[in-house]
Amino acid sequence: MSPTPEANERLRKARRGEQWTQETGFPIIASAIARLYRADLDNFISKREIVPLLLDETHSRALVETAYKKIGRDRKSSIEKYAGNMVQWFSQKWTIGDPKWLGLFKRLLGVSLE
Questions:
Q1: Which of 5, 42, 61, 77 is 20 to 30 Å from 35 at the Cα level?
Q2: Per-residue pLDDT at 50
Q3: Where does residue 57 rank: exposed (0-12), middle (13-18), buried (19+ CB within 10 A)?
Q4: What pLDDT score does 72 carry?
Q5: Which of 1-10, 17-26, 57-66 ranks highest by mean pLDDT?
Q6: What angle separates helix 22-39 from helix 79-95, to the nearest 10 degrees?
Q7: pLDDT confidence tier of residue 16, bands split at 50, 70 and 90
Q8: Is 40 helix (H, G, I), strand (E, B) or coil?
Q9: DSSP character at residue 112
Q10: 80 to each of 9, 84, 95, how far by Cα in Å?
Q11: Chain centroid to CA 51
């Protein structure tokens, strides 16, 4: 499962120390979910599956670590929990039906999700 060119560009931005934003992080999270989904089309993809993938892959781990380091003064939780929060922020946007992110899944999966 190799990262897309878009994910590689987000990695370059993360390495330059640019702040984590939804526009930077959500496509990386969506890409991880899409890869997990394509690997097992019949199962629900849980946060427990997404977080380890985000932290195992170089491009997404760099993004998570950059954001995590920026909250240094309030770092009361682990990087795993912080990555889980990122996934929950994404999930919230998905749940409310934000069309920006629905389109992202359509492109990644090549299917209609409406």
A1: 77
A2: 93
A3: buried
A4: 63
A5: 57-66
A6: 90
A7: low
A8: coil
A9: -
A10: 23, 6, 22
A11: 8
